[in-house]
Amino acid sequence: MPPIISVTNLSKTYGSGFQALRNVNLEIRRGEIFALLGPNGAGKTTLISAICGIVRPSAGTISADGHDIVRDFRAARAKIGLVPQELTTDAFETVWATVNFSRGLFGRAPNPAYIKATLKTLSLWDKKDSRIMTLSGGMKRRVLIAKALSHEPQILFLDEPSAGVDVELRQDMWRLVRTLRDSGVTIILTTHYIEEAEEMADRVGVISRGEIILVEEKAELMRKLGRKQLTLQLQAPLERLPPALDAYRLELARQGSELVYTYDTQGERTGITALLRDLAAAGIRFKDLQTSQSSLEDIFVGLLRERA
User: In which domain, by residue range, is 254 found?
Assistant: First the structure.
C-alpha cells in the first residue's frame, strides 16, 4: 500500500538565510499514529506547515494521498486537518458557527449531524452557542480540534496538542485519537509529552536541526536502543568497588548504598548470574534488587546528545 504522505528531498530556507529543513525524506503510512519528536527549533512545525501547504518549500516535493501539495493544493489540503499550537480562532463567533464555517471552506456540503457528533465527542455540545471569547483555554483547544475535523479529513496533524491543557482534556484527546485511528484516519503528532508518544505512537521520527535523524517502529526502537538496569540495594555502603568487578562497569549510587548494573536488552546473556556470583565471592551482600528499562524519553535524549 502506498504511503498516505510522501516527503522527498524537502528543504526550506527562509529569507533571512536560516535553513529550517535540510533534505528531509519521510513516508507516513496510511492509518498509523506517527509521533514526530524534536527539541524546540528542530523544524517540527516548519515540516508540518510545509506538508499542509502553509509554508512553501525551497526544494523537494510533498504528496498527500497522491496529490502534490503545490500543483494540486486544494485536493491535497482537503485531505488534511490541522490543529496548530497557537489558539487562533474567531473570538466573536459561536462554537457552532466557526466549526460549521470551517467545513464550508473545504467545499463540503452542510452536515449538521456530523458537526453535532463531533462537538459531542469533544464535550463541546453544551457550548455550541457560546462565543469563542468566553471559553477557557482548554475549551478553545477543543474547538480547534473540532475545526480540524469539520471536513472529515483522512490525515490529522496535531502540533503540540497537549501544550497548556488540563489532564481531563488530554485524556479526552487521546481517546479521540484512538477512535479516529480505528476509523482509518492517519494521525501525525508532535509532542513534548514523550510519555504520550510512547503510549500512543506506532512509529517514531526524530528531527534535529532540520534533519530527520531516525524513523523507527516504536517497539523496535526501544528494543534496539533501550537499556535495562539492575539496581542492588546493599546491606552495607561501599566506598569503592573491588578491581575484580571492573569488567561489569558498575556504578555506585546513593552514597555507596546502591550498585547499578546496566546491560544490553539484545544480548544473548545479561551477565547477571555471573555478577551475583562475583559479588558473593567479593563479600558484597545486598538486601533487595529491582530492574528498570529506559523509556522513550531516555532514548530521545541520548540520540540528541549523540548529534550535539
Answer: 227-293
Asked if residue 298 is part of any domain, the answer here is no
Q: Are residues 189 and 116 both part of a single domain? A: yes
Indicate if 84 and 195 belong to the same structural domain: yes
Q: Report pLDDT digits (tens) over 95-114.
A: 999 999 999 999 899 999 99
Query: Is 299 among the domain residues?
Result: no
Q: What is the CATH classification number for the domain harbouring 271?
A: 3.30.70
Contact present, 146 and 103 (Cβ < 8 Å): no
Domain total in the chain: 2
Which letter, b or e, does each residue of 247-284 get, where b requires 16 or more Cβ atoms within 10 Å of its Cβ?
ebebebeeeeebbebebeeeeeeeeeeebbebbeeeeb
CATH number at residue 122: 3.40.50.300
Residue 112: C-alpha distances to residues 53, 216, 240, 275 (Å): 28, 40, 72, 67
Sequence-distant (6+) residues with CB within 8 A of 89 are 98, 132, 140, 143, 144, 147
List phi, psi (to 5°) of 21. Answer: -130, 140
Residue 279 lies in a domain: yes
Contacts of 301 (CB under 8 A, 6+ apart): none
Q: For residue range 20-48, what is the model confidence (pLDDT) as tens digits?
A: 999 999 999 999 999 998 888 889 999 99
Q: Please give the torsion angle defined by the CA atoms of residues 84, 86, 90 and 92, in that order, rounded to the nearest 10 degrees.
A: 140
